[in-house]
Design goal:
heterodimer; A: about 325 residues; alpha/beta; 4-stranded antiparallel β-sheet; B: about 270 residues; mainly alpha; MetI-like fold; 9 helices
Chain lengths: ~325, ~270
């Protein structure tokens, strides 16, 4: 296993309004565990505010978790001091969401890409220019990009620069936090295909975060579904149709069907996502779940194996049919 | 660059050149006393007349520009350096250091700064160095606050986060990623506060708390001219106009720079 995450928890304390009020906290990431095999892509989906980005920041050690462990190639990261961690950082890198704020506006592309090499003393100084030009080629930018500033590029091109920067140190693991959600649909496909090509070329492992199940499914072998700080389902992307968690059903039914003949019965969730400051007791999804019963408010569900490669966190998993069974009820026009 | 900036640049350019090359200009010695010609009105040899000791007013105003600009630039450079260092650290590291800075900074700002300067100046012997020190002591707070605010907003941006994930040292992130992007409001503030420093220097010299007696300074010229306002108004008028013009120049320059940076070019 390249990456192993065990029971990661992160709660953000909120400033207290008045001294008699209780201290509250945002429960951003709750008891998340998963592992990721080298060379594979793990997708992470969930709606805005469910803790995806916090999880990415935790894995990148931009913030420290409250508890839990992160193992990268067997090495535990959470207990390491920043000074010990720094040399290890070249093994795991991040692609950021917003191509407009992810590049320093006062540095040229060449400077942006050379800096990581300099800091980590990768090889000879004389070779830097070649390595940077090679990477510029690899991500499909033109050679003259070297001396230009970020504002001279379009969003898609800037994202290519961001990808190039994250790959300069030849990392093993790349965490991509919604790398395409700020881009046009046509550009999205280009960037995703670029990422898939680079994965083969450089033997990369991706944790691909997005809120769009269709995109995640295209690039990932396995998929994690996150809701309100919890992982609610983990499933092979090939078997996505047999998803059992009602929340995954709702996400799946929102993916458009590329055929005018089929009318998909949409599962529309009622209400809003509960506040992560004050999540519901028991199952956090119960307030919007069409199957919810009394037991859901009383017991906490946990991520349990249904089959070998399929884990679901639902107390009523036996009563919820797989998504494909629901689909059969959709009429064909 | 816009119109305001150009006017400001011209004024400051001319004043700076005059100050810089004062010893080379064909003007009289500013300290040469001609007691016979006291209060002489403007003439060909002395275009702006002579003062109560017969010294050439034009040459004293030009040498006064030297002093004002020297004190102004030195004060701004010192307060900018100290303020930037403290502001960068407070914004970047946060925590106790930041809390202490905000507390101390608020105390500084709660005082009317000119009163604080006068109080301090009363304790130290008048000299140009002490003048610069006193003005810098009050000046650094505004720079530190500006840069702290900049750092607080910049450090959440993704390129700064990326610098962390790439394993860059804190020093590199501060100097290469945060400082260059936080600089523009600082430059505007520095230009605008030059005007304030020149006024403060003149005020202190006017009150006799600034430069040592005898050194040509706009404030002290204004002060000694006041007694003779009815018989020789040019003694106060000339340094007063010099202060006004220079301050106006710096204000135009600062406003122009601000307008320039307000339009996001990125």
């Amino acid at each position: 296993m390249l990456l192993k995450v065990e029971n990661i928890v992160k709660h953000f304390p909120l400033p207290r309004g008045w001294w008699w009020q209780k201290k509250s906290k945002v429960q951003a990431v709750n008891d998340v565990s998963f592992s990721l095999e080298g060379g594979k892509t793990l997708g992470l989906v969930g709606e805005s505010g469910c803790g995806k980005t916090t999880l990415a920041r935790l894995l990148m050690r931009l913030i420290a978790p409250d508890s839990g462990k992160i193992y990268l190639e067997g090495e535990e990261l959470t207990s390491l001091k920043e000074s010990k961690l720094r040399p290890l950082r070249k093994k795991f890198q991040m692609i950021f969401q917003d191509p407009y704020s992810s590049l320093n506006p006062r540095m040229t592309v060449g400077q942006i890409l050379t800096e990581p090499l300099k800091v980590h003393g990768m090889g000879k100084k004389a070779g830097y220019l070649n390595r940077v030009q090679e990477m510029i080629d690899k991500v499909g930018l033109s050679r003259n990009a070297y001396g230009r500033y970020p504002h001279e590029f379009s969003g898609g091109q800037r994202q290519r620069v961001g990808i190039a920067r994250s790959l300069m140190l030849y990392p093993k693991l790349v965490i991509a936090d919604e790398p395409v959600s700020a881009l046009d649909v046509s550009i999205q496909a280009q960037i995703i295909n670029l990422m898939m090509d680079l994965q083969k070329d450089m033997d990369l492992t991706y944790l691909f975060i997005a809120h769009d199940l269709k995109v995640v499914r295209h690039i990932s072998q396995r998929i994690l579904v996150m809701y309100l700080g919890h992982i609610v389902e983990e499933i092979d992307s090939e078997h996505l149709e047999s998803a059992r968690h009602p929340y995954t059903h709702a996400l799946l039914s929102a993916v458009p069907v590329p055929s005018p003949q089929v009318a998909r019965k949409k599962i529309v969730l009622t209400g809003d996502v509960p506040s992560p400051i004050n999540p519901p007791s028991g199952c956090s999804f119960r307030t919007r779940c069409p199957y919810a019963q009394e037991i859901c408010a009383e017991k906490d569900p946990f991520l349990d194996s249904l089959h070998d490669d399929h884990r679901v966190a639902c107390l009523l998993v036996k009563e919820v049919p797989p998504f494909s069974d629901l689909e059969k009820n959709s009429e064909t026009r | 660059m816009n119109f305001k900036f150009k006017i400001g640049a011209w004024i400051i350019g001319v004043v700076s050149l005059l100050a810089l090359f004062a010893p080379l200009l064909p003007i009289a010695n500013p300290d040469q006393v001609h007691l016979a010609d006291e209060f002489a009105p403007p003439s060909l040899a002395h275009p702006l007349g002579q003062d109560e000791e017969g010294r050439d007013v034009l040459s004293r105003v030009v040498y006064g520009a030297r002093l004002s600009l020297l004190v102004g630039f030195a004060t701004v450079v010192i307060s900018l350096t100290i303020g930037t260092l403290i502001g960068l650290m407070a914004g970047f590291f946060g925590g106790r250091f930041d809390e202490t800075f905000v507390f101390v900074g608020d105390i500084f700002l709660a005082f009317p700064s000119i009163l604080l300067i006068i109080a301090l100046a009363a304790f130290v012997p008048p000299s140009i160095l002490n003048l610069i020190f006193v003005l810098s002591f009050v000046g650094w707070v505004s720079y530190a606050r500006i840069i702290r605010g900049q750092v607080l907003s910049l450090k959440t941006l993704e390129y700064v986060q990326a610098a962390h994930t790439l394993g860059f040292s804190n020093g590199r992130i501060l100097l290469r990623h945060l400082l260059p992007n936080a600089l523009s409001p600082l430059i505007v503030n520095a230009t605008l506060s030059l005007a304030g420093v020149i006024i403060a220097e003149s005020t202190l010299s006017f009150l006799g708390l600034g430069v040592p007696p005898g050194v040509p300074s706009w404030g002290s010229m204004l002060d000694s001219g006041v007694a003779f306002l009815l018989i020789a108004p040019h003694l106060s008028l000339v340094p007063g106009l010099a202060i006004m013009l220079t301050v106006l120049g710096f204000n135009f320059l600062g406003d122009g720079l601000r307008d320039h940076y307000d339009v996001q070019k990125i």
